[in-house]
Amino acid sequence: MTDQQPQNPGHEEAIVPVRPGLKGARSNNFRDDPKRTGMISLPGVLLGVLIAIAGVVFFVLPNWVEEQGEQVPVVEGTQLDTPAVSEGPFFTPEELEDLRDQAESLLALLLSQQGELDGQSVSEWGGEDFGLYQALSREGDDAYLIDAFYDAVPAYSQALELGEELLERSIELITAALSAGGEALEAGNSAVALEQFELVLRIEAENSLAQTGLLRAQQLPEVLELMRVAEEFERAGNLEEAAEGYREALVIDSLWVPAQSALVAVNTVIQNRRFDTLMSQGLSNLAQEDYDDAYEFFTQALVLRPDSRNALDGQTQAEQGQKLDQIALVEARALAFELRELWELAIGQYRDALETDSSLAFAQQGLQRAQSRVDLDLKLINIIENPDLLFNDRVLRDTENLLTEAHGISEAGPRLEEQITELSRLVRLASTPIRVEIHSDEQTEVTVYRVGQLGKFRVRNLELRPGSYTVVGSRDGFVDVRQTFNVIPGRELSPIMVECVESI
User: Fold this and answer.
1) Quick one: which of 90, 99, 243, 474 could link to 149 by a disulfide (CB 3.0–4.6 Å)?
2) What pLDDT does 309 receive?
């Protein structure tokens, strides 16, 4: 060995083989997946070994090769303890520099790929292909360390291609393991399911399907035990307890199909039993003319089985019964109000009945009868409360006709009879003349409105019906006089003086 180091063609100084970061764009031969481009450092141990080898290659090996004058043999496909220097083909410095750049770019991609594969636990499933992948990576590293970039480039390229195949295989493994795990779950084999889902999570830790599957597999023994107990209840006819057991199983694993199916089946049987019970109760109440309860039972039955013709028919019969009951009740109430002469309330009942069925004859007749009685009642009350209205001849005649109408009503009732009695008295008083004495001076012409001209006199007696009267006196050369007086039944009226005394 000499103290002088040989000059490498194309480089001025030795290259320390530290795997650099990504320098160029990735080749189209590899998948452009962001997940695959994350940078993961080469393990420290490998880096230390590479640095040690580099020292040998760049400071010791060149002198030794120069002294020996021959190439150290390399065993293909294996990692040598001492890298050999190969003269290799001739490259210009520019070509060698380009190969160096290619090697560094490929190395950066390989480092990222190795990190991704390590994160997927490739050593557990990569088999011989992963061993070959490691050998090609080492081969590329060995060539890189001695500046044999023309050998490093193809070794790295082959390793990358094989790595891509391994990554593709990982996807296939995930798919197969997920399928196998799902089948194991369906078969009730928690051990196999756990194994398959754990495998997926070692390859892809964030796989949500595997996470869910793993949790289901862990809970499967508890679910199966709940299913066993629920099935025993079902066989014993304790359907409510069975349904509760199936629901508890679904609380733990909502995706457990056997529990879903069993719960649907049990609930169907429970609903059928409930339906039969409700129908029986509804028919019983219908027979007893308890239409309200019957309607409620049939309605509940329709909730359980909306398409049941029998339940719908039962509900219809109950509705008709309710309608008849309601009509009968309304009629009874209306007649009761009529007997008490509460005509407004009776009208309300008849209107309610007609809203239910506008063709009801009793309601039509009752409504007409009650309205006429209301009208009569209002007229009678008005005259009784305002007897002075009878002083008007027209009103008096109308009232007499009203009394005739009232007398013609059969079963008048205490209230109407009382009104007839009172109004008859008022009419009698209003029709009975009262003596009125009028005095004058025999020179004044006296006229009483509604009665006529009385002429000149000293004293004149008139028989006047109760009411309001106006007397007027007139005399030539004198101012007319006018006086209004009221004739009130049962009240004595003082003489009325009419004379003109004021000259014009």
Assistant:
1) 99
2) 95
